[in-house]
Protein backbone atom coordinates (compact mmCIF):
# COMPACT_ATOMS: atom_id res chain seq x y z
CA UNK A 1 0.00 0.00 0.00
CA UNK A 2 2.78 2.39 0.87
CA UNK A 3 4.55 1.60 -2.40
CA UNK A 4 1.36 2.21 -4.41
CA UNK A 5 0.74 5.49 -2.63
CA UNK A 6 4.29 6.56 -3.37
CA UNK A 7 3.91 5.81 -7.09
CA UNK A 8 0.52 7.55 -7.22
CA UNK A 9 1.88 10.59 -5.41
CA UNK A 10 4.84 10.74 -7.78
CA UNK A 11 2.57 10.53 -10.84
CA UNK A 12 0.28 13.24 -9.46
CA UNK A 13 3.28 15.45 -8.75
CA UNK A 14 4.51 15.02 -12.32
CA UNK A 15 1.05 15.81 -13.71
CA UNK A 16 0.69 18.92 -11.54
CA UNK A 17 4.19 20.04 -12.53
CA UNK A 18 3.36 19.67 -16.22
CA UNK A 19 0.05 21.52 -15.82
CA UNK A 20 1.82 24.31 -13.93
CA UNK A 21 4.43 24.70 -16.69
CA UNK A 22 1.74 24.84 -19.39
CA UNK A 23 -0.41 27.32 -17.45
CA UNK A 24 2.60 29.50 -16.70
CA UNK A 25 3.50 29.60 -20.40
CA UNK A 26 -0.01 30.87 -21.19
CA UNK A 27 0.74 34.02 -19.20
CA UNK A 28 -2.47 34.44 -17.20
CA UNK A 29 -0.39 36.09 -14.49
CA UNK A 30 1.21 38.73 -16.73
CA UNK A 31 0.41 42.44 -16.99
CA UNK A 32 1.42 44.40 -20.11
CA UNK A 33 2.30 48.10 -19.89
CA UNK A 34 2.40 50.41 -22.90
CA UNK A 35 5.60 52.18 -23.83
CA UNK A 36 7.28 53.20 -27.09
CA UNK A 37 10.80 54.28 -28.03
CA UNK A 38 9.44 57.25 -30.00
CA UNK A 39 6.63 58.16 -32.37
CA UNK A 40 5.06 55.05 -33.89
CA UNK A 41 2.56 54.79 -36.75
CA UNK A 42 0.88 51.99 -38.66
CA UNK A 43 2.22 51.47 -42.19
CA UNK A 44 -0.50 51.71 -44.87
CA UNK A 45 -0.95 48.80 -47.26
CA UNK A 46 -0.35 45.91 -44.84
CA UNK A 47 -3.44 44.18 -43.47
CA UNK A 48 -2.75 40.44 -43.75
CA UNK A 49 0.25 40.24 -41.46
CA UNK A 50 3.96 40.99 -41.69
CA UNK A 51 5.14 37.83 -39.98
CA UNK A 52 8.83 38.05 -40.85
CA UNK A 53 11.11 40.93 -41.81
CA UNK A 54 14.45 40.69 -43.61
CA UNK A 55 16.76 43.73 -43.56
CA UNK A 56 19.18 44.04 -46.47
CA UNK A 57 22.51 45.82 -46.13
CA UNK A 58 21.27 49.06 -47.75
CA UNK A 59 18.22 49.51 -45.50
CA UNK A 60 15.62 47.82 -47.69
CA UNK A 61 13.33 45.54 -45.69
CA UNK A 62 11.54 42.58 -47.27
CA UNK A 63 8.24 41.75 -45.60
CA UNK A 64 6.54 38.35 -45.58
CA UNK A 65 2.75 38.81 -45.57
CA UNK A 66 -0.07 36.28 -45.72
CA UNK A 67 0.95 33.57 -43.25
CA UNK A 68 -1.87 30.97 -43.01
CA UNK A 69 -2.62 29.34 -39.67
CA UNK A 70 -2.79 25.53 -39.67
CA UNK A 71 -6.58 25.48 -39.94
CA UNK A 72 -6.47 28.01 -42.81
CA UNK A 73 -4.12 26.02 -45.04
CA UNK A 74 -6.75 25.38 -47.69
CA UNK A 75 -6.94 26.34 -51.35
CA UNK A 76 -9.60 28.97 -50.65
CA UNK A 77 -7.34 30.91 -48.28
CA UNK A 78 -5.95 34.17 -49.71
CA UNK A 79 -2.51 34.11 -51.31
CA UNK A 80 0.35 35.97 -49.70
CA UNK A 81 2.78 38.62 -50.90
CA UNK A 82 6.27 39.99 -50.34
CA UNK A 83 6.48 43.73 -49.74
CA UNK A 84 9.45 46.08 -49.55
CA UNK A 85 9.97 49.00 -47.18
CA UNK A 86 12.91 51.38 -47.60
CA UNK A 87 14.18 52.58 -44.23
CA UNK A 88 16.15 55.33 -45.99
CA UNK A 89 12.96 56.86 -47.37
CA UNK A 90 11.07 59.39 -45.27
CA UNK A 91 7.77 58.16 -46.72
CA UNK A 92 6.21 55.46 -44.58
CA UNK A 93 4.99 53.16 -47.35
CA UNK A 94 5.44 49.69 -48.78
CA UNK A 95 5.75 48.37 -52.32
CA UNK A 96 4.44 44.96 -53.34
CA UNK A 97 6.99 42.85 -55.21
CA UNK A 98 5.84 40.98 -58.31
CA UNK A 99 6.95 37.37 -58.78
CA UNK A 100 8.25 36.54 -62.25
CA UNK A 101 9.37 33.33 -63.93
CA UNK A 102 7.80 29.88 -64.11
CA UNK A 103 5.90 30.12 -60.85
CA UNK A 104 2.27 29.99 -59.70
CA UNK A 105 1.77 32.99 -57.37
CA UNK A 106 -1.70 31.76 -56.38
CA UNK A 107 -0.05 29.01 -54.32
CA UNK A 108 2.16 31.43 -52.41
CA UNK A 109 1.59 31.68 -48.66
CA UNK A 110 4.91 32.82 -47.16
CA UNK A 111 6.23 32.51 -43.63
CA UNK A 112 9.93 32.87 -42.75
CA UNK A 113 12.21 34.85 -45.06
CA UNK A 114 15.98 35.24 -45.44
CA UNK A 115 18.45 36.63 -47.97
CA UNK A 116 21.97 36.17 -49.26
CA UNK A 117 23.79 39.13 -50.80
CA UNK A 118 26.60 37.98 -53.09
CA UNK A 119 29.30 40.63 -52.69
CA UNK A 120 31.22 39.34 -55.73
CA UNK A 121 28.35 39.57 -58.20
CA UNK A 122 26.09 42.12 -56.52
CA UNK A 123 23.14 39.72 -56.78
CA UNK A 124 20.64 39.24 -53.95
CA UNK A 125 18.93 35.91 -53.40
CA UNK A 126 15.80 35.57 -51.27
CA UNK A 127 14.77 32.33 -49.54
CA UNK A 128 11.17 32.04 -48.40
CA UNK A 129 9.24 29.41 -46.45
CA UNK A 130 6.08 28.62 -48.42
CA UNK A 131 3.05 26.67 -47.21
CA UNK A 132 1.64 25.03 -50.35
CA UNK A 133 -2.04 24.05 -50.37
CA UNK A 134 -3.22 23.60 -53.99
CA UNK A 135 -1.73 20.12 -54.55
CA UNK A 136 -1.71 18.88 -50.97
CA UNK A 137 -0.55 20.63 -47.81
CA UNK A 138 3.25 20.61 -47.84
CA UNK A 139 6.00 23.00 -46.77
CA UNK A 140 8.86 24.00 -49.08
CA UNK A 141 11.60 26.61 -49.44
CA UNK A 142 11.32 28.89 -52.48
CA UNK A 143 14.47 30.56 -53.84
CA UNK A 144 14.19 33.83 -55.78
CA UNK A 145 16.53 36.51 -57.06
CA UNK A 146 15.66 40.10 -56.15
CA UNK A 147 15.83 42.56 -59.06
CA UNK A 148 15.98 45.94 -57.38
CA UNK A 149 15.45 48.14 -60.42
CA UNK A 150 12.14 46.52 -61.31
CA UNK A 151 11.40 45.48 -57.70
CA UNK A 152 10.57 41.94 -58.74
CA UNK A 153 11.38 38.47 -57.43
CA UNK A 154 12.53 36.11 -60.18
CA UNK A 155 11.77 32.50 -59.34
CA UNK A 156 14.81 30.19 -59.39
CA UNK A 157 13.76 26.90 -57.80
CA UNK A 158 11.77 25.12 -55.11
CA UNK A 159 13.49 23.00 -52.47
CA UNK A 160 11.42 20.13 -51.11
CA UNK A 161 12.68 17.36 -48.82
CA UNK A 162 11.10 14.61 -46.73
CA UNK A 163 12.52 16.29 -43.61
CA UNK A 164 10.48 19.44 -44.25
CA UNK A 165 7.49 18.75 -42.00
CA UNK A 166 6.28 22.04 -40.54
CA UNK A 167 8.75 24.74 -41.52
CA UNK A 168 8.75 27.96 -39.55
CA UNK A 169 11.85 29.92 -40.53
CA UNK A 170 14.90 29.82 -42.78
CA UNK A 171 18.32 31.49 -42.75
CA UNK A 172 20.57 31.57 -45.80
CA UNK A 173 24.23 30.57 -45.59
CA UNK A 174 24.74 31.02 -49.33
CA UNK A 175 22.44 31.14 -52.34
CA UNK A 176 22.27 27.33 -52.32
CA UNK A 177 22.68 26.40 -48.63
CA UNK A 178 20.56 27.22 -45.62
CA UNK A 179 19.27 26.19 -42.21
CA UNK A 180 15.59 25.90 -41.41
CA UNK A 181 13.46 25.06 -38.38
CA UNK A 182 10.58 22.61 -38.14
CA UNK A 183 8.42 23.85 -35.28
CA UNK A 184 6.69 20.47 -35.04
CA UNK A 185 5.89 17.32 -36.96
CA UNK A 186 2.18 17.35 -37.79
CA UNK A 187 0.24 19.85 -39.92
CA UNK A 188 -3.04 18.67 -38.37
CA UNK A 189 -4.32 21.38 -35.95
CA UNK A 190 -5.61 18.76 -33.50
CA UNK A 191 -2.44 16.67 -33.42
CA UNK A 192 -0.29 19.79 -33.23
CA UNK A 193 -2.25 20.94 -30.18
CA UNK A 194 -1.48 17.61 -28.51
CA UNK A 195 2.21 18.02 -29.38
CA UNK A 196 2.19 21.45 -27.77
CA UNK A 197 0.19 20.59 -24.65
CA UNK A 198 2.32 17.52 -23.96
CA UNK A 199 5.45 19.52 -24.85
CA UNK A 200 6.75 16.89 -27.24
CA UNK A 201 10.14 17.68 -28.76
CA UNK A 202 9.05 17.07 -32.34
CA UNK A 203 10.81 20.08 -33.87
CA UNK A 204 14.42 20.63 -34.82
CA UNK A 205 17.11 22.45 -36.78
CA UNK A 206 18.01 21.28 -40.28
CA UNK A 207 20.66 22.11 -42.87
CA UNK A 208 20.24 21.83 -46.66
CA UNK A 209 22.64 22.05 -49.56
CA UNK A 210 22.09 21.43 -53.27
CA UNK A 211 21.87 17.66 -52.78
CA UNK A 212 20.02 16.94 -49.54
CA UNK A 213 18.91 18.04 -46.07
CA UNK A 214 20.09 16.74 -42.69
CA UNK A 215 19.01 17.30 -39.11
CA UNK A 216 21.58 19.02 -36.93
CA UNK A 217 21.36 19.00 -33.17
CA UNK A 218 18.84 17.26 -30.96
CA UNK A 219 15.02 17.39 -31.22
CA UNK A 220 13.58 20.60 -29.78
CA UNK A 221 10.26 21.86 -28.44
CA UNK A 222 8.77 24.24 -31.04
CA UNK A 223 11.90 25.96 -32.39
CA UNK A 224 10.83 29.07 -34.24
CA UNK A 225 13.02 31.88 -35.60
CA UNK A 226 16.55 31.10 -36.77
CA UNK A 227 19.48 33.39 -37.57
CA UNK A 228 23.25 33.34 -38.00
CA UNK A 229 25.68 35.57 -36.15
CA UNK A 230 27.34 38.25 -38.28
CA UNK A 231 30.50 36.13 -38.64
CA UNK A 232 28.39 32.99 -39.34
CA UNK A 233 30.09 31.12 -36.49
CA UNK A 234 26.90 30.68 -34.47
CA UNK A 235 23.33 29.56 -35.09
CA UNK A 236 20.71 31.42 -33.06
CA UNK A 237 17.28 29.86 -32.48
CA UNK A 238 14.21 31.04 -30.57
CA UNK A 239 11.97 28.72 -28.56
CA UNK A 240 8.76 30.52 -27.59
CA UNK A 241 7.36 27.64 -25.52
CA UNK A 242 10.57 27.60 -23.48
CA UNK A 243 10.84 31.43 -23.45
CA UNK A 244 14.46 31.03 -24.51
CA UNK A 245 17.04 31.97 -27.10
CA UNK A 246 19.50 29.16 -27.84
CA UNK A 247 22.93 29.89 -29.33
CA UNK A 248 24.91 27.05 -30.92
CA UNK A 249 28.44 27.03 -32.28
CA UNK A 250 28.86 25.84 -35.86
CA UNK A 251 31.46 23.38 -37.11
CA UNK A 252 31.32 23.34 -40.89
CA UNK A 253 27.59 22.88 -41.54
CA UNK A 254 26.99 20.90 -38.37
CA UNK A 255 26.58 22.15 -34.83
CA UNK A 256 29.72 21.64 -32.76
CA UNK A 257 27.67 20.04 -29.98
CA UNK A 258 23.99 19.35 -29.37
CA UNK A 259 24.09 21.68 -26.39
CA UNK A 260 23.98 25.46 -26.88
CA UNK A 261 26.92 27.54 -25.71
CA UNK A 262 24.35 29.91 -24.24
CA UNK A 263 20.68 29.54 -23.33
CA UNK A 264 19.04 32.87 -22.53
CA UNK A 265 15.75 32.93 -20.65
CA UNK A 266 13.91 36.06 -21.79
CA UNK A 267 10.71 35.73 -19.74
CA UNK A 268 8.49 36.07 -22.81
CA UNK A 269 7.80 34.04 -25.96
CA UNK A 270 10.31 35.08 -28.65
CA UNK A 271 9.33 34.61 -32.28
CA UNK A 272 11.67 35.85 -35.03
CA UNK A 273 15.24 37.03 -34.39
CA UNK A 274 17.11 39.93 -35.98
CA UNK A 275 20.88 40.41 -35.57
CA UNK A 276 22.00 44.04 -35.85
CA UNK A 277 25.41 45.38 -36.91
CA UNK A 278 26.67 45.21 -33.31
CA UNK A 279 25.69 41.56 -33.01
CA UNK A 280 22.83 42.32 -30.61
CA UNK A 281 19.55 40.42 -30.97
CA UNK A 282 16.13 41.99 -31.54
CA UNK A 283 13.15 39.77 -30.81
CA UNK A 284 9.51 40.11 -31.77
CA UNK A 285 7.71 38.54 -28.81
CA UNK A 286 4.34 37.28 -27.58
CA UNK A 287 4.19 38.21 -23.88
CA UNK A 288 0.77 36.69 -23.04
CA UNK A 289 0.33 33.20 -24.45
CA UNK A 290 -3.41 32.66 -24.03
CA UNK A 291 -4.22 35.96 -25.76
CA UNK A 292 -1.87 34.98 -28.58
CA UNK A 293 -3.82 31.73 -29.06
CA UNK A 294 -7.15 33.60 -29.11
CA UNK A 295 -5.79 36.04 -31.70
CA UNK A 296 -4.58 33.16 -33.88
CA UNK A 297 -8.13 31.79 -33.89
CA UNK A 298 -9.83 35.13 -34.55
CA UNK A 299 -8.19 38.52 -35.07
CA UNK A 300 -11.06 40.27 -33.28
CA UNK A 301 -9.26 39.18 -30.10
CA UNK A 302 -6.32 41.51 -29.56
CA UNK A 303 -2.97 40.19 -28.34
CA UNK A 304 -0.11 42.14 -26.72
CA UNK A 305 3.05 43.01 -28.64
CA UNK A 306 6.61 43.32 -27.38
CA UNK A 307 10.11 43.92 -28.73
CA UNK A 308 13.10 42.79 -26.67
CA UNK A 309 16.75 43.56 -27.34
CA UNK A 310 19.52 41.33 -26.01
CA UNK A 311 22.53 43.62 -25.80
CA UNK A 312 25.78 41.73 -25.41
CA UNK A 313 28.65 43.13 -23.38
CA UNK A 314 32.34 42.81 -24.17
CA UNK A 315 33.53 39.44 -22.91
CA UNK A 316 36.32 36.96 -23.53
CA UNK A 317 33.66 34.33 -24.21
CA UNK A 318 31.01 35.30 -26.80
CA UNK A 319 27.39 35.70 -25.66
CA UNK A 320 28.20 35.14 -21.97
CA UNK A 321 27.48 38.67 -20.70
CA UNK A 322 24.35 40.53 -21.75
CA UNK A 323 21.52 42.86 -20.77
CA UNK A 324 17.85 42.36 -21.59
CA UNK A 325 16.03 45.53 -22.65
CA UNK A 326 12.35 46.00 -23.47
CA UNK A 327 12.25 48.39 -26.44
CA UNK A 328 8.53 48.35 -27.21
CA UNK A 329 5.45 47.07 -25.43
CA UNK A 330 1.72 47.48 -25.88
CA UNK A 331 -1.57 45.82 -25.03
CA UNK A 332 -2.56 45.11 -28.63
CA UNK A 333 -4.79 48.07 -29.48
CA UNK A 334 -2.46 49.31 -32.26
CA UNK A 335 -0.85 46.07 -33.37
CA UNK A 336 -1.50 42.58 -32.13
CA UNK A 337 0.86 39.62 -31.81
CA UNK A 338 4.22 41.09 -32.79
CA UNK A 339 6.41 38.46 -34.44
CA UNK A 340 9.48 40.30 -35.74
CA UNK A 341 11.46 43.51 -35.43
CA UNK A 342 14.32 45.13 -37.35
CA UNK A 343 16.30 48.21 -36.35
CA UNK A 344 18.22 50.45 -38.75
CA UNK A 345 19.40 54.06 -38.56
CA UNK A 346 17.17 54.94 -35.57
CA UNK A 347 14.10 53.43 -37.20
CA UNK A 348 12.25 50.38 -35.94
CA UNK A 349 9.84 48.15 -37.86
CA UNK A 350 7.63 45.75 -35.93
CA UNK A 351 5.91 42.94 -37.82
CA UNK A 352 2.85 40.95 -36.79
CA UNK A 353 1.54 37.48 -37.55
CA UNK A 354 -1.92 38.36 -38.87
CA UNK A 355 -2.56 42.11 -38.98
CA UNK A 356 -0.46 45.22 -39.69
CA UNK A 357 3.06 46.65 -39.61
CA UNK A 358 4.34 49.33 -37.23
CA UNK A 359 7.04 51.93 -37.91
CA UNK A 360 8.74 53.83 -35.08
CA UNK A 361 11.14 56.77 -35.14
CA UNK A 362 13.41 55.81 -32.25
CA UNK A 363 14.27 58.70 -29.94
CA UNK A 364 15.70 56.84 -26.99
CA UNK A 365 16.51 53.25 -26.14
Structure characterization notes:
- With 365 residues, the protein is mainly β.
- It has a single domain (31-362), classed as Neuraminidase (6 Propeller), CATH 2.120.10.
- Helices cover 12% and strands 43% of the residues.
- It has helices spanning 2-25, 189-197, 289-297; strands at residues 38-42, 52-55, 60-65, 81-86, 95-96, 98-100, 110-117, 124-132, 138-147, 152-159, 167-172, 178-182, 203-208, 213-220, 226-228, 234-239, 244-251, 254-255, 262-265, 269-275, 281-286, 305-312, 322-330, 338-344, 347-352, 357-362.
- The strands form six sheets. A five-stranded mixed beta sheet has the order 6-10-9-8-7, with no helix packed on it. Strands 15, 16, 17, 18 and 19 form a five-stranded antiparallel beta sheet that branches.
- The longest helix has 24 residues, at 2-25.
- It starts with a helix and ends with a strand.
- This is Paraoxonase.
Please sum up the structure shown:
The chain contains three helices and 26 strands. The chain is mostly beta strands. It is an enzyme of class 3 (hydrolase).
Mean of residue pLDDT values? 92
Q: Helical element count? A: 3
Please name the CATH architecture.
6 Propeller
Main CATH class? Mainly Beta
What is the count of structural domains?
1
Category by helix and strand content: mainly beta
Outline the fold blueprint.
Elements: H1 2-25, E1 38-42, E2 52-55, E3 60-65, E4 81-86, E5 95-96, E6 98-100, E7 110-117, E8 124-132, E9 138-147, E10 152-159, E11 167-172, E12 178-182, H2 189-197, E13 203-208, E14 213-220, E15 226-228, E16 234-239, E17 244-251, E18 254-255, E19 262-265, E20 269-275, E21 281-286, H3 289-297, E22 305-312, E23 322-330, E24 338-344, E25 347-352, E26 357-362
Parallel strand pairs: 6-10
Antiparallel strand pairs: 1-26, 2-3, 3-4, 4-5, 7-8, 8-9, 9-10, 11-12, 12-13, 13-14, 15-16, 16-17, 17-18, 17-19, 20-21, 21-22, 22-23, 24-25, 25-26
